[in-house]
Amino acid sequence: MSKPLLTELKALNFSQQVVAWYHQHGRKQLPWQLSTGQHKPYHVWLSEIMLQQTQVVKVIEYFDRFIKTFPTLDDLANAEEQQVLALWSGLGYYNRARNLHKSAQLCQQQHHSQLPQDLQQLIGLPGIGRSTAAAIMSLAYDQAEPIMDGNVKRVFARHFLIAGEPNKSSTLKQLWQLAEVHKEQHEAAAYTQGLMDLGATICTKHQPKCDQCPINESCQARKKDMIAQYPAKKQKVKQAEVDLYALLSVDGSNVGLNQRDEHSIWPNLMFLPLFESAETLLNAHADAQQHFSLTHKLTHRILQIHVYLLKQPIKSTAVQMIDREDLINRPHPKALIHILNQHDNH
DNA sequence: TTCCTGCACT
DNA sequence: AGTGCAGGAA
Question: Can you give the residue ranges of the HhH-GPD domain (predicted)?
Answer without folding.
Answer: 50-201
